[in-house]
Amino acid sequence: MNEQGGRLPVEIDSTVAHEARVYDYWLGGKDNFAADRALGDAIAEHIPTIKTMARANRAFVGRAVRYLVQECGIRQFLDIGTGIPTSGNVHEVAQSAEPSSRVVYVDNDPIVLAHARALMTSTDEGATRFIFADLHDPDSILSDPALAETLDLTQPTAVMLVAVLMYFRENSEVEQVLGKLVDAVSSGSYLTITHPTADFDPEAMAGVVASAQQSGIPFQPRGQDEVAALFEGMDLVEPGVAPVLAWRPDPEPSGITKLHPEHEVDPRSAYYWAAMARKR
Ligand SMILES: C[S@@+](CC[C@H](N)C(=O)[O-])C[C@H]1O[C@@H](n2cnc3c(N)ncnc32)[C@H](O)[C@@H]1O
C-alpha cells in the first residue's frame, strides 16, 4: 500500500530512494516515501535551492517542447526518463500547441509506470504511449512495438533526455546510447538534453554526488564541454549549451522568478546545463 492508501505493484520498493520519487519530492509531489525525502533533504543541505532547480528544469521542459512544436514544426516526441507525471507533461504542452502531437514516454521506474497508465491521456488527434524500459538498452526502446505504433521515425522526432544522463557514470556509455538514438531518427530531428554540472558550484555539487552515492544512486555531473560534445555532428540551437534558466527564457516572468519576487534570479543558480540541437 502507498501512503495514500492505494495498492502498490509488488516491485515498488519504498525503503530505497528512487530518482523519480526524489525529484517528485522536490517538485512538491506526493508520490514519494521516507527514503526518498531523506535523500532529497540530504541533497538540499548542499544545495538549499534544489527545489527551485528542479522546478527550473521542469519549466525548461515546457519551453523546449513549445519551441519544438511552434518554431521547428515537430509533431513527434520520444521522452526518455519521463519522471512521475506532474503538471506540464510533454504531451500536454505539445498537444495544447498542436493537438496531433504524438508522444512516447520511457522510464525504468515502476512507480512511473504505475502513474503513466493512469495519467497519460491524449487528444483524439494525437497519441500518447508509455514504454517501461531502461535507457542503458536503447535497442529495447527502439524495438518496442509501442514506438513503431506511435511514432514514424522517418519523420522528424524530438528525442528528449531531460535530467537523466547524470545517472550514467561513463561518457563512453552516454555516447553509445546517444549514437543509437540519433541514428534511429531522421534528418531534421532534434536532441534535447539537460544535465547537472559542477561548473557553477563545485563544492555544492560534490556534496550532491556524495549524498546520491550513499543512497546507491550513481550521479555524474558534466561540464559544459562534455555536454556540448554530446551533440557532436549536430547543429546546436541558439543559445547553445546554456544555464537551464537562461535557455530561451519566457518573456513573461515564469513561476521560477515569481518564487523570488524580491530579487533577480542568477541564471547559474540552477546548476544545470540545457541544450538542443538539430540532426543534419
Ligand atoms: C530527475 S527525473 C527527470 C524527469 C523529467 N525528465 C524532467 O526533467 O522533469 C529522472 C527520471 O529518469 C528516470 N531514469 C533514470 N535512469 C533511467 C534509465 N536508465 N532508463 C530510463 N529511465 C531512467 C528516473 O526513473 C526518473 O523518472
TrEMBL record:
Taken from the record, one Pfam family name reads Methyltransf_19
Q: Which UniProt keywords apply?
A: Methyltransferase, Transferase
**From what superkingdom does this record's organism come?**
Bacteria
Q: Where, by residue number, does the polypeptide cross the bilayer?
A: none
This entry's Gene Ontology molecular function terms read: methyltransferase activity
Annotated GO biological process: methylation
InterPro entries associated with the record: SAM-dependent_MTases_sf, SAM_dep_MeTrfase_SAV2177_type
Keyword Transferase in the entry? The reply is yes
- Name the chain's protein: SAM-dependent methyltransferase
Instruction: Tell me the classification of the organism that encodes this protein.
Output: Bacteria, Bacillati, Actinomycetota, Actinomycetes, Pseudonocardiales
